[in-house]
Amino acid sequence: MSDNLEKKEYVISKIKQIIKDEKFKIDAFFFCGFPGGTPNEKLKKACEKYLETVENEKPDDAVTQQLIAELEAATQLLHTEKAGTLVNNVSDVKEVLDNKQYL
């Protein structure tokens, strides 16, 4: 397996983790009344849309750019939240941004 393919798969795994974290925040807040951090629906949707293009093997630059924009916006938002929240995915978000050339 090529190094680029391995890195792309790693970045995709991080995107999947971001989606899981955002879904958990939503569930924790609405079902349990337990704050796990502020859910970011825009980030979750951008990640899901990107994964859809990957799964369908139909790359879309507009979708990729939207994902990058939402990731960048999320880093600003995550830094303003309390560092002690249960689910803080800032490291995953930053890691995807640091490797955006593999998107």
Provide a short characterization of the protein structure.
This protein has 4 helices and no strands. The protein has about 100 residues and is mostly helical. Helix 3 (about 60-80) runs antiparallel to helix 4 (about 90-100).
Write a structural description.
This protein is mainly alpha-helical and 103 residues long. The chain has one domain. 71% of the residues lie in helices and 0% in strands. It has four helices and no strands. It has helices spanning 3-31, 41-55, 61-80, 90-98. The longest helix is centred in the N-terminal third of the chain and has 29 residues, at 3-31. The radius of gyration is 14 Å and the shape is globular. It starts with a helix and ends in a 5-residue tail after the last helix. The model has no long low-confidence stretch (mean pLDDT 85).
